[in-house]
Every structure is written in structure tokens, then in C-alpha cells.
Amino acid sequence: MIKTFTQDDVIRYVYEETSAEESLLIEDAMMSEPDLMTFFLEALEMRALLNKIERQPRTSTVQTILNYSKHHPANPPARLRHS
What we know:
Elements: H1 7-14, H2 20-32, H3 34-52, H4 59-71, H5 78-81
């Protein structure tokens, strides 16, 4: 039986979520199917670009969280903690 591989299979391959046997079969499929190989190369590039993204919350978001924590009932003001 000939297995047909999809772009989903290639993505699993890119993220190393395939078995050794399945990886070999996917590699063979990519060598014989130019569209699959093109998708593989694009997926590799996309993964590299995604790994470069550094996300940080907005300053206002951090301040909102800190204010909520400061005024939360489970966190009484310092003057009440030492009573």
C-alpha cells in the first residue's frame, strides 16, 4: 500500500513529531513530490521566523495586574499584615 503524505504530515515532521520510520517515508515522499518539498522548505522557514518572535505584554497590562494584586483581598496592606 502506498501512503500519501499531506502537509499536516510534513508539519509533524518539521516539529519532530514523527517516528523514525515515518520520517524516512516522509523524506522519500518529499524527494518525489516537488510541492511537498516546497511546503517543507516554507514550513522550515516559518518555524525559524516564529522562533525569533519575542512577545512582551504592554506596560499597561502589567500595571493592571500589579494594581489588581496590590488591592486584592488576599493581599492586605502592609499596615494590616503586621497587626
